[in-house]
Amino acid sequence: MTLNQHLQEIFNRIEKGNESDEDKKLLLEKILAGDRQVVSQLGKYNVNIGKGKDIHIGDRIYQQWDKEAMEALVKAIQETNGIHQNTQGGDAAARDIDKSITYKNCTIIQLLAKDSNLNNGSQSFLNKSDFSGIPQEIIQQAYQDALPPDASVWNLEGNDITQILQVIEEFRKSFEFVKRLSQDENIPQEIRDKLSALAEELAAKKHSGDKTKPSTDFLSNPKGQLESYLIATIERGDDEQFLMNAWLIIDDSLPVNDLSKFISLLDKDEQQLGILCKFNDIPKQLNKFLKKSLRLLRGRQHQLIIEVFLPSDLIGTEVDRWKISDPILEEITLGIKYPIRLRSLERLNLDYLDFYLSDWYKYWDKVKAVLHNEAVQELFEHLKEMENFNLKLLKNNLQNKIGLKVTCAPPKAKIKDLFKAILTATTPIVIWTRYDIPNLDQVTAIDEVLSFKPLCHLCESVRQKREQADAQTEEHLGFHLALLWEDPHRLTPNVMLQLTTPGQ
């Protein structure tokens, strides 16, 4: 019988309450001799022997291995096995042995982690995942990297994926494990995309108890439906080319400053700068981003909203009229299938944010206060004509307003000044028509869209108007409606990183 097996039998007898005086004597001898196997085993029972004389058992510190310390050790071992779970008397080591405690030399992990709701959720996610396409050595490396630095004190050795997942779950490191796998360039991109989506779900599970930030649109979606976002940026490049970047947020109910919710939709070699393309090729590229997003959302109930950041002089681009592929109809119009929100690229400029972000937050708070209200027209400044447009006057009129409704088509020459007023006023919502339809009361038509449903559903109301237009042959407002929806808490990850307070 090896020494290791002999020691294990002693621990087993103590766990069951069948230990002898000889067992305790031999155990004490090994402890005093600094036996590494014994010290390693003790870590499982919330027992840590410091580099000095301090002996940590539960939340008690003993200075020497006397009778009291040995009794506390026995109770600690038995507590882990459930023998003294209902103990009301005794010392604090026996009563509080299930607490998670951090010491200078060793991180003690709560051994009852299997019973937590978080762990149950992580276990179900991981058990449904297929890791068979990943080389064992890569799994082993991610396993070791995900565990705490001092995890070796428990002599953990993952020999197969089942054992590895069990240990990872017990240490509550499922997210870290999957995230590391998703970042390993030796794994095929398709598998990494799936791992990124899995990491997103685990992060959402991890933060499900965080009440500090409900979903961005305040639970406007049906229960159980993910609020997903495809976020794209379009910037001017050189030689009449444009630079595109895109990310998917699978569920925007995660805390504001959690950048792990962003999944890049670009290939690894494109992520540093983005994709360069001609303006006419932008719709095709967005269609590729959309296809990749839908693959990552496969099997989930979701509402996908598309947000596109554009320079102000291109904000009149008919993004909602772009064509996308469809498995049945071959080609459909983007804005009929998905709600489209236009965003100002200028709001991603750090100089702009330094100067205006505080005011932007203030106006967004006003939006949040009325999201479930239907009659919000009085909170929208009304711009009826552009012939006598005055930038400074509009900026002043936008004070204390959450939005702007423009019921006449802005001339191309004045769009830039119009959005200068909107940007400096930090107005979060703008709805306008790109074209003046003859014989149509555009004021009444736009007011109907604003009051059709509560404000949190405005995007969907605009989408439905576009859907109605698509079913008709004559001119319809739905062909020309545009919506700007500027949430300061949902920017691109590179910008949000700059806004994150150190330590968050």
TrEMBL record:
<protein>
    <submittedName>
        <fullName>Uncharacterized protein</fullName>
    </submittedName>
</protein>
<dbReference type="InterPro" id="IPR045440">
    <property type="entry name" value="VMAP-M1"/>
</dbReference>
<dbReference type="InterPro" id="IPR045450">
    <property type="entry name" value="VMAP_C"/>
</dbReference>
<dbReference type="Pfam" id="PF20028">
    <property type="entry name" value="VMAP-C"/>
</dbReference>
<feature type="domain" description="Effector-associated">
    <location>
        <begin position="1"/>
        <end position="77"/>
    </location>
</feature>
<dbReference type="Pfam" id="PF19954">
    <property type="entry name" value="EAD10"/>
</dbReference>
<dbReference type="InterPro" id="IPR045429">
    <property type="entry name" value="EAD10"/>
</dbReference>
<dbReference type="Pfam" id="PF19963">
    <property type="entry name" value="VMAP-M1"/>
</dbReference>
<feature type="domain" description="vWA-MoxR associated protein C-terminal">
    <location>
        <begin position="267"/>
        <end position="488"/>
    </location>
</feature>
<feature type="domain" description="vWA-MoxR associated protein middle region 1">
    <location>
        <begin position="136"/>
        <end position="231"/>
    </location>
</feature>
